[in-house]
Amino acid sequence: VQLQAFGGGLVQAGGSLTLSCTASHRTFNNYAVAWFRQTPGKEREPVASINSNGGATEYADSVKGRFTISRANVKNTVYLQMNSLKPEDTAVYYCAAQTRGGWDLSAACNYWGQGTLVTVSS
């Protein structure tokens, strides 16, 4: 399964962006998916996760109430709607999938997308 992440760009603080993660095969629909982000010199951090049927989501405290993860299994796609963006949200965002129905933060990711850059200007 190949993942493609896109939708990044430059946005002013307070603005919104929607990231998409599209998979090459429909088996993706059986996988839990998460978005991560990384800035230079820092470890990649989880932002949000969603289980295979979209019924369970989790968020990092830093994005709760501002970001929403969702999925459209008919399109083999997971989205990250980002609202009220802040300069500290600037990062390369990656999507990743685990070959299991529920996301397990302690488990390894089986597939990664290539990353998409989000830049939030102040």
Describe the structure.
The protein is mostly beta strands. The protein is 0% helix and 48% strand. It has no helices and 11 strands. The strands form 2 sheets. Strands 2, 4, 5, 6, 9, 10 and 11 form a 7-stranded mixed β-sheet that branches. The chain has a 4-stranded antiparallel β-sheet with strand order 1-3-8-7, with no helix packed on it. Strand 7 (67-72) and strand 8 form a beta hairpin. The termini are far apart. The model has no long low-confidence stretch (mean pLDDT 96).
Give the count of helical stretches. 0
Low-confidence stretches: none
Relative strand content: over 45%
Number of strands: 11
Which class best fits the helix and strand makeup? mainly beta
Main sheet characteristics: 7 strands, mixed
SSE order, one letter for each helix or strand: EEEEEEEEEEE
Helix content: under 10%
Cα Rg? 13 Å
The averaged pLDDT comes out at 96
Envelope shape: globular
First CA to last CA: what distance?
37 Å
Short description:
This protein has strands spanning 3-6, 9-12, 17-23, 32-38, 45-50, 57-59, 67-72, 77-82, 91-98, 111-112, 116-121.
Keywords:
about 120 residues; mainly beta; seven-stranded mixed beta sheet; four-stranded antiparallel beta sheet
Topology:
Blueprint: E1 3-6, E2 9-12, E3 17-23, E4 32-38, E5 45-50, E6 57-59, E7 67-72, E8 77-82, E9 91-98, E10 111-112, E11 116-121
Parallel strand pairs: 2-11
Antiparallel strand pairs: 1-3, 3-8, 4-5, 4-9, 5-6, 7-8, 9-10, 9-11
